[in-house]
Design a protein that fits this description.
Blueprint: H1 6-13, E1 42-45, H2 55-65, E2 69-73, H3 78-83, E3 87-91, H4 108-124, E4 129-132, H5 142-163, E5 166-170, H6 186-196, E6 201-206, H7 207-213, H8 217-224, E7 228-232, H9 250-259, E8 265-268, H10 277-291
Parallel strand pairs: 1-8, 2-3, 4-5, 5-6, 6-7, 7-8
């Protein structure tokens, strides 16, 4: 959760410049700039996977590779993105957490307050996408949890629609990484979006998580196309690099995504290999080139 109040945050976001330290740990100027990307896939990268870099350093790396978006960044860091002309491709900060979410009505008052405020912040900043989570089951039936999510999210949908903000329910696997999480299948997320019936409610189709819980990635993404607003990548098993050392054919997956006419972002969300910043930067470059169909 962010600590600044809404008025202070809006004032901060309106500033044209901010003071920051110049990158020093990672000399991005020495990196070789890649050729132009094809433009069929809109690339992004999740902030947490490159936490060894400062955000300004990550912005520099992203621009060196040839794209201009970073995922999972909250309001306090948006001014840095703006200074570097980098899009906040999936905003966060309104959620309580992964285990306490929209499937439990006891959290609705807090979530509704958080999301109403955050929707305005996202819109004011000129961004579009905002993440959300179901929370864990804790013995709750899937249908009950689905109904609870629909009831809660519908209370904020008109606000999201007015402000042009799209909410994205992320699918997470419940077999390995997020035991007991409710939105652990593409079918469940599909039904959620169908019942809410708003262009401002989508699913975040995390390819890594869907592979672990369901598999059959290409058929599932084709089926879910009307309700997919965003993708995350990750090698299976282990959320490592997406190269030949893991079980998914990301080249084929990206071609299938492009064939559906998808216009949103595909964000890299894997743990980069290597021990030095330069080696980890090379991991991101490899992944982007692999997905640039």
């Amino acid at each position: 959760m962010y600590t600044l109040d809404r008025r202070s945050m809006l004032k901060q976001l309106s500033l044209g410049t901010i003071a920051m330290l110049a990158p020093s740990a990672f000399h991005l100027a020495k990196a070789q700039t890649m050729g132009s990307l094809k433009g069929n896939i809109r690339h992004s990268v999740c902030r947490w996977t490159f936490s060894h870099l400062s955000l300004p350093e990550l912005c520099g790396l992203v621009k060196t590779i040839g794209f201009s978006a970073v995922d999972l960044v909250g309001p306090k860091d948006w001014p840095i993105l703006k200074m570097h002309e980098i899009d906040s491709s999936m905003c966060n900060g309104a959620e309580i957490g992964l285990t306490k979410g929209w499937n439990d009505p006891q959290y609705h008052p807090t979530l509704i307050k958080n999301y109403l405020e955050h929707i305005e912040l996202v819109s004011k900043a000129g961004y579009k996408n905002l993440i959300c989570f179901t929370g864990n089951r804790r013995g709750m039936d899937n249908e009950v949890g689905l109904k609870n999510c629909v009831d809660g999210l519908k209370k904020i949908m008109s606000h999201a629609e007015r402000h042009g903000v799209v909410l994205h329910m992320e699918i997470l696997n419940s077999r390995i990484d997020h035991l007991d999480y409710m939105a652990d299948s593409s079918d469940w997320a599909f039904e959620l979006c169908k019942r809410i019936d708003s262009p401002n409610m989508k699913m975040l189709f995390d390819i890594y998580h869907v592979q672990i819980n369901e598999g059959d990635i290409i058929r599932r993404l084709r089926k879910c196309t009307p309700y997919i607003g965003h993708y995350h990548t990750g090698g299976v098993p282990g959320r490592g690099e997406i190269t030949e050392g893991q079980e998914l054919n990301y080249r084929a997956i990206m071609k299938s995504i492009h064939a559906t006419g998808f216009q949103g972002y595909v964000a890299q969300e894997f743990s980069p290999s290597g021990t030095t910043p330069e080696e980890k930067a090379s991991s991101l470059k490899r992944a982007v080139l692999l997905c640039d169909v």
